[in-house]
Write a structure and sequence with these properties.
6-stranded antiparallel beta sheet, 111 residues
Length: 111
């Protein structure tokens, strides 16, 4: 669980981006140059997942760390998959928040 103080600090620094989706998506974590975003769209989102961006490349990644679409360079993908392994429960909890149209919580980065 993220402490309320850390979450507030992260929220103040966590920008929203559009990335061609036509809507702002909130970043929920960042580490080693990788930024993680999540948003909910019932039509397009049957599987719990997040979006990872690194060096101009992006990928949709399941909460289990499986790449659903797009690609990242191998080292960045390894970081993302390790983060997903460590933070699986928090990712799923944010996914459920997004489904209920509730604010997302920041998820700590890789150590």
């Amino acid at each position: 669980m993220v402490s309320p103080i850390w979450a507030r600090i992260w929220h103040d620094q966590a920008p929203c981006r559009h990335f061609g989706y036509g809507r702002a998506v909130q970043s929920i974590s960042a580490f080693y140059g990788v930024v993680i975003y999540m948003y909910w769209n019932e039509r397009d989102h049957p599987v719990a997942h997040f979006h990872a961006y690194y060096a101009g490349r992006r990928a949709s990644v399941s909460a289990d760390g499986v790449v659903l679409a797009g690609s990242l360079e191998p080292r960045a993908l390894a970081f993302v998959q390790e983060w997903a392994r460590l933070r699986h429960d928090e990712i799923v909890a944010d996914w459920e928040r997004a489904r209920r149209n509730e604010p997302l919580l920041a998820i700590p980065p890789l150590p």
